[in-house]
DNA sequence: GTTTAGGATTCG
């Protein structure tokens, strides 16, 4: 056919038929290689040792002023096709060397992998015949060459050895004339303490947020001498394979435990060097770990934070802010005179009084039972749902897999992955876009589908706002309102089932930046946490039951925070113990000054006067 | 149409 006559026909020489002084074309399996490095002359150099089914080896020394025209070999076992390589004899052995017009193709050596050539040539011949040769070489290599084990990860490094690391460049810094620092991460955590090269944070090039987030995960690799020039030119965020890193166990004078140092020594022995991997590389894909395309830098940051989160399961609880313990009770306005309880009991309601009384007893004695949820619209009170309720609702919603159609919209970006366990649960996280994302990724509002109670809880530890959602056919929607519709730090926000009319999540797109508007936009009537207590007050003239209905003012503790905060619970118990010492005699009880108001409640024919404490705060002193 | 490196771990 006409087309065939146009394509040049290449003859390939097997490695046992090479002759001194010839220029040939050949195929080979990479047995050894040095990734391109800067030579002492004018060019880049790469040394490649090949083997083929004739079982003869050929070491080639390849030079080029353009690093891209050297073969793109990433690992031993890759298959190469060289065109126009010159054969010479050197030290009694055949040697390959670049000649004019040298060109190369490189293929993954894995049996069954797509046969896609890596090359810098714009034009090259590659047809069915060539594809067949590559596939045959793969099969031959699989049964005749020893395969190296899986590449080492940071999580599997051992002291005192050399290994290749596939990783991402997070930061870099100049150290001195002969060494350069690379800060890299491979998605895992080194089990040993790792060495930190003393470099000022401001001298490290890289994304500050990322460097901060990954400070305990990434490792410092000090590269020396001939590798410095290449290291300097590396782009932050690029994927690297660093060959023959030396792990050295050492301990500083002031350290009890030894640490591991990572060195890329000078020279190119054993292929020591640095290679840049394209994003299409299968090992890079594995490194990214998630089966989704990357959408941009800020999302990578969020993903890395999440990954960090799922990797490190131990968290230091935040330091509780120190708060002074209050003891007695003060009043706000001072214009009213004290009124005896007897007088109050004999008066008609409604009226307001200032009183001086002692707290004889109070209910409920178990203080956590005093926390309720209050709807200011319908005035209903309800118990705070417990974690089991939430877990049950999350489990129910996780049965439906995230709808792929609802991933990545104009106002949020999504990541989805499948859990590694036997349940193969699908989790989707949707990051609502906002302007300051890059500076403070933790400020991102996110929505989660398919998460467990533990996962949702952990996410709230780093991200400001988390909304649990599920997919419908058209939109994301809130879960049952027995579950919190929004989690902010330790606080779970609930909506009133009676008064809320949940709207589709897409309503959020317009106000995604204003978190305080969430509930109204989503059609949720927000339930507020309140303390409800009954105080029995006495003053020697009579006894009166007054209700405390308090969001925050009386105890100076937000009712919303008490259930998730042991410190605040303790503080509240101490306060009550001071106001009403357990087992205390009447004389031992402190005096309380407070405002109460009386009001009428009519239920059919029954009429009753109730009393409620207002404008009163527990004092801060003593 | 020259050199570079020519596989075989640094010693910081």
Automatic annotation (TrEMBL):
A GO cellular component annotation in the UniProt record: nuclear telomere cap complex
Domain Telomeric single stranded DNA binding POT1/Cdc13 positions: 12-142
Keywords linked to the UniProt accession: Chromosome, DNA-binding, Nucleus, Telomere
GO molecular function terms attached to this record: G-rich strand telomeric DNA binding; telomerase inhibitor activity
One Pfam family, short name: POT1
Location relative to the cell: Chromosome, Telomere; Nucleus
Classification via SUPFAM superfamilies: Nucleic acid-binding proteins
GO biological process, one term: telomere capping
Family from the record: Belongs to the telombin family.
Name by which UniProt lists this protein: Protection of telomeres protein 1
Gene, per the UniProt record: POT1
């Amino acid at each position: 056919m006409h087309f065939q006559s146009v394509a040049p026909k290449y003859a390939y020489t097997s490695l046992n038929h090479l002759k001194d002084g010839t220029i040939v074309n050949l195929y080979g399996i990479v047995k050894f290689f040095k990734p391109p490095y800067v030579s002492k002359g004018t060019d880049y150099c790469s040394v490649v040792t090949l083997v083929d089914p004739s079982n003869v080896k050929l070491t080639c020394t390849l030079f080029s002023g353009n690093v891209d025209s050297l073969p793109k070999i990433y690992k031993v076992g890759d298959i190469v096709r060289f065109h126009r390589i010159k054969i010479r004899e050197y030290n009694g052995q055949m040697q390959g060397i670049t000649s004019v017009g040298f060109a190369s193709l490189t293929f993954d050596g894995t049996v069954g992998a797509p046969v896609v050539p890596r090359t810098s040539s714009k034009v090259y011949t590659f047809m069915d015949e060539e594809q067949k040769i590559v596939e045959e070489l793969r099969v031959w290599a699989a049964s005749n060459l020893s395969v190296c084990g899986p590449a080492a990860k940071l999580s599997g490094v051992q002291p005192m050895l050399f290994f290749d690391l596939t990783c991402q460049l997070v930061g870099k810094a100049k150290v001195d004339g002969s060494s350069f620092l690379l800060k890299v991460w491979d998605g895992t955590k080194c089990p040993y303490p790792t060495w930190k090269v003393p470099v000022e944070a401001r001298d490290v090039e890289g994304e500050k947020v990322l460097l901060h987030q990954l400070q305990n995960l990434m490792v410092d690799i000090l590269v020396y001498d001939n590798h410095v020039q290449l290291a300097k030119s590396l782009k932050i965020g690029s994927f690297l394979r660093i060959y023959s890193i030396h792990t050295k166990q050492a301990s500083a004078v002031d350290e009890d435990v030894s640490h591991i140092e990572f060195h890329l020594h000078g020279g190119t022995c054993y292929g020591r060097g640095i290679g840049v991997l394209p994003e299409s590389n299968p090992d890079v894909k594995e490194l990214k770990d998630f089966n989704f395309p990357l959408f941009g830098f800020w999302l990578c940051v969020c993903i890395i934070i999440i990954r960090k989160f799922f990797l490190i399961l131990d968290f230091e609880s935040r330091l509780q802010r120190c708060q002074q313990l209050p003891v007695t009770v003060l009043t706000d306005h001072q214009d009213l005179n004290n009124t005896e309880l007897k007088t109050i009991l004999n008066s008609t309601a409604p009226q307001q009084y200032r009183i001086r009384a002692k707290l004889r007893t109070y209910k409920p004695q178990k203080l956590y039972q005093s926390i309720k949820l209050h709807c200011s619209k319908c005035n209903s009170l309800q118990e705070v749902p417990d974690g089991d309720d939430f877990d049950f609702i999350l489990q129910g919603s996780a049965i439906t897999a995230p709808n792929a159609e609802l991933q990545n919209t104009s106002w949020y970006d999504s990541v989805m992955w499948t859990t590694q366990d036997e349940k193969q649960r699908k989790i989707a996280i949707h990051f609502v876009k906002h302007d300051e994302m890059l500076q403070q990724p933790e400020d991102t509002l996110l929505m989660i589908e398919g998460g467990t109670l533990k996962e949702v809880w952990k996410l709230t530890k780093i991200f400001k706002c988390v909304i649990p959602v599920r997919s419908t056919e058209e939109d994301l929607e809130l879960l049952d309102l027995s579950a919190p519709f929004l989690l902010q730090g330790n606080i779970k926000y609930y909506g009133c089932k009676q008064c809320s009319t949940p709207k589709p999540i897409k309503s959020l797109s317009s106000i995604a930046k204003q978190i305080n508007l969430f509930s109204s936009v989503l059609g949720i009537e927000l339930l507020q946490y309140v303390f409800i207590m009954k105080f029995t007050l006495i003053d020697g003239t009579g006894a009166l039951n007054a209700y405390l209905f308090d969001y925050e003012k009386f105890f100076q503790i937000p009712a919303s925070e008490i259930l998730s905060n042991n410190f605040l619970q303790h503080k509240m118990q101490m306060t009550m113990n001071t106001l009403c010492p357990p087992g205390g005699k009447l004389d031992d009880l402190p005096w309380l000054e407070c405002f109460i108001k009386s009001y009428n409640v009519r239920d059919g024919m029954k009429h009753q006067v109730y009393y409620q404490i207002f404008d009163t705060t527990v004092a801060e002193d003593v």
